Amino acid sequence: MARKPSPDDLLAPVTLAVGQEDLLLDRAVQQVVAAARAADADTDVRDLTSDALQPGTLAELTSPSLFAERKVVVVRNAQDLSADTIKDVKAYFSAPAEEITLVLLHAGGAKGKGLLDAARKAGAREVACAKMTKPADRLGFVRSEFRATGRSATPEACQALVDAIGSDLRELASACSQLVADVEGTIDEAVVARYYTGRAEASSFTVADRAVEGRAAEALEALRWSMATGVAPVLITSALAQGVRAIGKLASAPRGARPGDLARELGMPPWKIDRVRQQMRGWSADGVAVALRAVAEADAGVKGGGDDPEYALEKAVVAVARAARARGQ
């Protein structure tokens, strides 16, 4: 493998999938297998764990066949291969067999780095499968899921889905598939709310959003729904605190700065800058201080400092909404 193949060349002699995001690793394998079977419906697929690939096994799997059949050999957790097996794999890189695609799944990092470096030096096709730890990355993932199906989803809908589902990519992908299958036309925030309201993450942030927007009645309704569905009170006080602090941060930021610059300075994703800008109309510095005190009191109340956590939360929600000057009511 002297020349590095194109990322689109799914039938490259060696594909290296690097990272620890299981969904992306599985997809990398599925794409190669699908391409191989499109070229030859009788493609033989061998999916092996690292301990199943012993010294000599790769040579057996890649030896010429009487019928010259196409084959895909998948090796999972390649970073755990034994030293002798790694020698076999490195040797294979210099003379890969025709009609055979080797797919190595590697976690990245220091363990097994020699194999990783050798595969890259040999010109393996590489697929990034790193964990998506940043909200902005998960938001981009959701957008790409809808784009891949040719469907349109509003930015608010994508964000609402991330808020509702959380960080599990499999659940996010499944939710996107469900919405695409069930909903005609553009997928908007109302559709996402109809399907996923009641999830803990969504409920707590819905309470906070309505409160900081000054919509006390809607915030209280969302609070009662959250409590009825078992959302932990500490999640709600946390969401309220985040909402008020975000307004305070943005209010004290330089005026006229671009969302991208503000995002870096304040530690918020750009989409959140736009949302908080809309929510902060009507807020004052005194209002932020009053709201933070109310949330702190509620937090103490739900953590054992009071007899009625629900009442403590209701008081905080009303105080935050009033601090927002009851905008929207």
Number of strands: 5
> With helices defined by DSSP (H or I, 4 residues minimum), what is the helix count?
15
The outline comes out as elongated
What is the straight-line distance between the termini?
A: 67 Å
How would a crystallographer describe the biggest sheet? 5 strands, parallel
Strand order of the largest sheet: 2-3-4-1-5
Give the topology string: H per helix, E per strand.
EHEHEHEHEHHHHHHHHHHH
From the 3D structure, determine the CATH topology of the largest domain.
Answer: Zinc Finger, Delta Prime, domain 3
Q: Any idea of the CATH class of the largest domain? A: Mainly Alpha
Mean pLDDT: 86
User: Low-confidence stretches at least 5 residues in length (pLDDT < 50)?
Assistant: none
Count of separate structural domains: 3
| Name given to the CATH architecture of the largest domain | Up-down Bundle
Radius of gyration: 26 Å
Strand content of the residues, in percent? 5-15%
Helix content: 55-70%
Explained architecture:
The protein has about 325 residues and is α/β, with parallel strands linked by helices. It folds into 3 domains: about 120 residues, P-loop containing nucleotide triphosphate hydrolases (Rossmann fold, 3-Layer(aba) Sandwich), CATH 3.40.50.300; about 60 residues, Helicase, Ruva Protein, domain 3 (Orthogonal Bundle), CATH 1.10.8; about 120 residues, Zinc Finger, Delta Prime, domain 3. The chain is about 60% helix and about 10% strand. It contains 15 helices and 5 strands. A 5-stranded parallel β-sheet has the order 2-3-4-1-5, with helices on both faces. α6 packs parallel to α8 and α12 packs across α13. The protein is elongated and about 75 Å long. The N and C termini lie far apart (about 65 Å). The model has no long low-confidence stretch (mean pLDDT about 85).
